[in-house]
# Entry
Amino acid sequence: MISAHFPPGVTSLTSKNAKRPNWQAAHLIRWDDENTMRPIGGWERLVLGPFASKVRKMHRWASNANTLYTAYLCEEHCYVEIDGVLVDITPVGGISPPFGNNAGYGDYLYSRLSYGTPRPGDNRLRMYTPMFSMDNWGQELRVMSSSDGRYLGWSPASPAGTKLAPILNAPLGNRAFIITPERHAMLFGMDGAIDKFGWSDEEDDTNWAFGDILSRARFYDVSPRSPIVTQQQFADGILMFTSNTGHVITWVGLPYVYSYRPLGRTSVPLSPASICETPRGVIWPAVDGWWIFDGTAVRALPCDVWDFVIDNMDVPNSRFQATCVHVVNKSEVWWFYLDKNGVTRLVIFCYRNGAWSMGTLHRTCGFVYANDRFPVMSDGVNIWKHESTLNYDGAEMPWIESQNLSPNGGENWFTVNSILPDISGNADALRFRMAKTNQRAGYTSDVYSPARKKNGSGYVDIRETARDMRLRIDMISNDNWGTVGPILFDSKVRGKK
# Structure
């Protein structure tokens, strides 16, 4: 028996035929604290809706009466869930929809379609794309869509039928907002100025009297001038990005109230929603990989699956659709992006053990409390409760495939007689196969052996001979297979050819 010690996580940084015991592709697989492999849980649809436009942001909070509310901000509407009932609180006149993004000259493929006709797809020249914000002012909800620009509010204490309404005196034409721990409402891209941010008086988000010496409302024009793309609040302040520079905003007290300092020309999040705070720092993906800010400096975060991402990602569309969900109860960051076929793909980073994984799953937003077992996410139309079942409605069941297991650098043929996997749960839910590649030129001929299950003696009977072979494990039923630990191979090296 030969033990194959697969390290936790997926790596696509080398060819799938590289001769090393790593996992090279996966779908909805994670590793726990003991580095044992297990499936990501499935999901079930909550009976909510219908939503009149695409759901782009979700937010949950409790009122002063300890009633739990969940808000859903859509592209043109807003709803609040109260005791399982969806209430439309869209402001009178609606919410302005996101701006169009038709492709222009130089977009799409060269010499395709007629000259002068609109191009399909998105305009890759846009430096920043629509953003959606929600937060609380005490028990009251605050809402903003960058395409609408109004700072809107709604109170749980208001009479039934009350809609969102603009907060009195607040600037218009804004991009985004946050509520700071010091109880200021801070607006970004404020008052129609793409490079301006400012804040209300302390404890009063109706006071925007910037020239009043009795008010703590202030503003800055960002220098060097550049449009504000996104921001993320963290323990020591606010991380703000313009189209080419990162800045840190910190509270300094009177007379300036807040100050900001540049971090230099850092890589900017790929989309406004592609950023989140974690215990390790603020994390985001950009066009050149993943990055992390630990409160002091920005540094690259090595991503073991980045070459697969960048080879397949539709960058223009991902600028509009990509989003991060911090699955805090699993210590994971889930990032959803679009590939070149219009399919939404998923990258998962576990910041506890550093493992990367991947999958194919369409989600537009989500949230989870730290002590909640079940993350809630949306595909833009439906609301799904995750990790509550082993049903994978609308997606494949979990699977994983290794890199090449060939001995001696692939010089020899070898035979696998059987596999001895360590499975803690129902082994009948899994099937094992070997992917064989005997043609060296181009690695184009992959032949999978028949799927085999673990027998009563604990072995998987597979007799396959090849020079290059990879192991694939598929989940084939909604049964809990628990974890997969060390895997032993009964194999024999053959001659060279």
Notes: The mean pLDDT is 90. Residues 55-302 form a domain with the Methylamine Dehydrogenase; Chain H fold (CATH 2.130.10). The longest strand covers residues 484-496.
